[in-house]
What we know:
By secondary structure, this protein is α/β, with parallel strands linked by helices. The chain has helices at about 5-10, 20-25, 45, 50-60, 85-100, 130-145, 165-175, 175-185, 185-200, 205-220, 220-245, 265-270, 305-320, 335-345, 380-400, 405-420, 435, 445-460, 480-490, 490-500, 505-525, 535-555, and strands spanning about 25, 35-40, 70-75, 75-80, 110-115, 150-155, 275-280, 280-285, 295, 325-330, 355-360, 365, 430. Helix 5 (about 85-100) crosses helix 19, helix 7 (about 165-175) packs across helix 9 (about 185-200) and helix 10 (about 205-220) crosses helix 11 (about 220-245). The radius of gyration is 28 Å and the shape is globular. The site of arginine (ARG) has 9 residues, from helix 13.
Amino acid sequence: MLNYKQIIANKINAPLEKAELVSLITETADDAFGDYAFPCFKLAKVMRMSPVQISEKLAGEIELDDVVVKVEAVNGYLNFFVNRGSLINDVLNDIAKAGAKYGNDKVGKGKTVCIDYSSVNICKSFHIGHLSTTAIGSSLYKLYTALGYKVVGINHLGDYGTQFGKMIVAFKLWGDRATVEREGVKELQRIYVKFHQEEVNHPELTEQAREWFVRIERGDPEAQELFEFFKRITLHEVMDIYARLNVKFDSWNGESFFNDKMDKPLQMLRDKGLITESQGAQVVDLKDYNMPPCLLVKSDGSSLYATRDIAAAIWRKNEYDFDKCLYVVAYQQNLHFKQFFKVLELAGLTWAQDLVHVAFGMVSLEDGSMSTRKGNVVLLRDVIDKAVAKSLEIITEKNPNLPNKEKVAEQVGVGAVLFSALENSKIKDITFTFDRVLNFDGETAPYLQYTTARCNSLLEKAGAWKKSKVAADLRALDNAETLRLCKLLAAFPQAVKDAAFKYEPSIVSALLIDIAQAFNRFYIEHRVISDNVAEQNARLQVVEATGTVLKKGLSLLGIESPEKM
Ligand code: ARG
């Protein structure tokens, strides 16, 4: 397939990086203004001319050929006209040939990306606050895989800390296995809260908790066994959700895995003269970088979150030799990542520049019920269950005879929830509203799934069209709606790369929405199933290509597409 944006970028003689040129080029919404547009505004400063003058100058330098047939300078934009017939033809052929591999690439061949995401905390409930890290991380996993990278998904479990000493004391006093087995993390949380209430009047509890924590650290069998029990209970609940969300991990090495792996890194930092004492604690001073010191060893000798992350980064580099290591974690932890990245950089580890904090905003429910201050967490499982139940209602109303309704409702409900975390630029805070994410006509996953199913059903109606001997009449594709749609389909491979390299799955989701809308316009304007078989065959190619791309795009977001809806 010709990469039109790339070809156009190569023709523009402007002082900008090629990749940036490419990313500035957009499909025009109105084909009277050409097919692709390049805005010259960014160049005004460097080129010391007005955007209008720049566009005129650049337009004069463009070499035309059979691919790019015309260029116009209009109000500071360069508008390019390409050979439309070949664009449509090429993209349809390309998608037909690649099928589910459309958008895949080899750029990542031989390279490894680690993605630290979802990273749950043992004994804590899995709530809606974990949705974004799980959805974004999982989508990045799929995007990088499609680009040929070896991907290592890491669930950096929160399985270390004094709170586990408290859990053991609480469990011994007020817990029992049968109830915990039955009620799960909810019960663990209940006794944990009770511990904190009781602790106020019974300071000996605090001391006992400290002792149990030390016993966990020393590997005392009883302490270990209880801790493993809590871990099993927590992971059992989380696994169920991961299975429903189609989320996978290759490593579960969490904080405790690094218990015995911190000495060497600490020694290395000491040898490099980076560690200073401060009130009995060991810290790396980061004043020169406008950050508070990075605390690595407390005065009682215990390690911290940052110590473990430093050890983990070094371990991952040795183990996987990654080209990039991503941390998909909320922006609340910005400082933590900036600090420990800086420590590694100061230690002279050049690969520290390959560590990326992929930060994102907060999710809350419309009634504000996520506020942890009020203490009422909303479980992710409950949100998914409710979305699935509502989907089932909608589907039953729209299509009462649909086979496998429950399965479809699961795919739609789960898709809607995932999409809500993937539709906007990830740094935005989002408010989750069931009615909005489940709106079949809105900019939602159900809308994309519904459009994909519409493609399937058209192809099914046409039956054995591929075997028909009648050649497609390509004149049936010579119209604005088909052109617009095909341009968007052609943009998909680049969107996959942009989404991966900018850590922004919303680039794919936004394109899919555009594609679905363009498809529905095409579908309203042009009858697909008709007596004119030559025309029909041409349009069915468009339908099939659209279905292929929507399905592929959804899969890169971790969302399934039901055959029928
Ligand atoms: N468990 C942590 C939390 O819930 C997230 C861990 C993220 N990964 C990391 N390597 N620090 O806040």
